[in-house]
Amino acid sequence: MDEQNVKNTSKKNTVGVLGLIAFVLSAMVGGGIYDLPQNMAINAGQIGQILSWILTGLIIWFIARSFMILTDAFPSYKTGLYLYAGAGFGRFAGFFVSWGYWICECFANVAYAVLLMSTIDTFFPSTFNGGKRVAAIIGGSIILWLMSILINQGIKGASWVDMLGTLGMLLSVTIFLVVMAIHFKWSAFNVNMLADKALPQLQDKSLGSLLDQVKNTMMTTLWVFGGIEGAVVLSDRSRSPQDVVRATKYGFLLCLLLYAAASLLPLGIASYGQIANMTAPSSAQLLETQIGVTGRLVITFGVIIAVLSSWLTWTLMLSEMPYAAAKAGNFPKQFAQENQHKIPSFSLMASTIVMQVILISTYFLGHAFNSMLNIVGTMTVPPYLISMLFLVKTAWKDETWPTVATISRKRALTTGIFALLGILFMGYAAGIRYTTISFIIYALGIPFFLLARHQFAPTEKPMTKGELIFAGAILAVAIIGLILLFV
């Protein structure tokens, strides 16, 4: 860790606990919560959804708790995920995490652009056509560059804008949940709770066993928690490690409550079959059935606010990872450049350009883009996995556990092992096909690592023997992914 850089970061450019919580909430909640009722109802009935949220809550809690422990035990490891990997498994592992995280969030931001343009189409019918017309590409591009300009002006300003956006999003979601709770009827909720019967009058169809229902919803429930590491990624800009711990804890609890309520309360108003057949965002249609057109407008504006807020959050977060990696010599040195506001300006610019290219490609990809988002979504598994492996590795023996840690080694080890098992289940839920295809994108990053090592250590071998084996394994899986991509 470059201590001089930490000292040079002025207090005005730091983020407090409320700002970090806003980042975590915005990163996780985004616009996905507004269509969560439909996304869950497609795959599970009432009992299946309850079980799914319980299992998801346990998995994500252990992951969140592990990040809290890592922050406590290694307070000097700013921009956590990258440094955990590098400290535990070498330079290339650190690069592997930073590259995957960076590209993954570039795609996530483009998804926000598509969603935003699709939502604005409500006011200008057929103009943006679900985010796939030239007008949608132009509109999304304008907002993309405006976001980058805002962040370039300084972290504190961007965090306050993000906090206000998060509050606006929470207000619209609260209105939705309150209305759903007021009109909730147990008599509707307890019909076909196991979702094992076909009821044509309710548009219900049999969704199979509870095990199948839970497994099928995991892709939705686990991925909506993407961003749980938000405060950790921004720990280099936080006022204290304890603020990071609190933000991670409260951000997780608030999101779990919001997600579970958003998917379960509507089942007391309409059947899972009826909700599954609603148009996106399903929360707008549900609210409109209860309070009229005002309900649809509340959700529409909520989606716009949520997407802009999350878009801002992720643009900031994704620029931090390659910046930290470049400072350590594992990303091309240009990514370490900062502007007068201590913002990683080159990394931010490069991220914006990558997102711009992806955004333009959506015009040609059409529905294939949704499949690509699923593939890239699996890229979150390796960064989480390596972070948890680092926790298990350091907590395995007394001599490797930091003396500054306030949490016992055995407790940390137990938490890390449970988190590790949960992440492996996440990979299983994603499916072998998507996992192998995602490694194509990981393989594309290897030349960037070689360039960085040539810049920082031109006389040294760019990779150790172990790193060469690791890179070879990535290429092998990527080749399998290429084969599966065209099968």
Task: Summarize this entry quickly.
With 487 residues, the protein is mostly helical. The protein has helices at 3-8, 17-29, 36-41, 46-73, 80-89, 91-120, 134-152, 155-182, 186-189, 210-223, 230-233, 241-264, 272-276, 282-291, 293-327, 345-365, 368-377, 381-395, 409-430, 432-444, 446-456, 465-485.
Question: What is the tally of beta strands?
Answer: 0
By secondary-structure content and strand pairing, the structural class works out as mainly alpha
Number of helices: 22
Largest sheet: none
Fold and architecture overview:
There is one protein chain. Mean pLDDT is 82; it is low at 1-12. The protein is 72% helix and 0% strand. Helix 4 (46-73) crosses helix 18 (381-395), helix 6 (91-120) packs antiparallel against helix 15 (293-327) and helix 6 packs across helix 16. The protein contains 22 helices and no strands. With 487 residues, it is mainly alpha-helical. The protein is globular, with a radius of gyration of 22 Å.
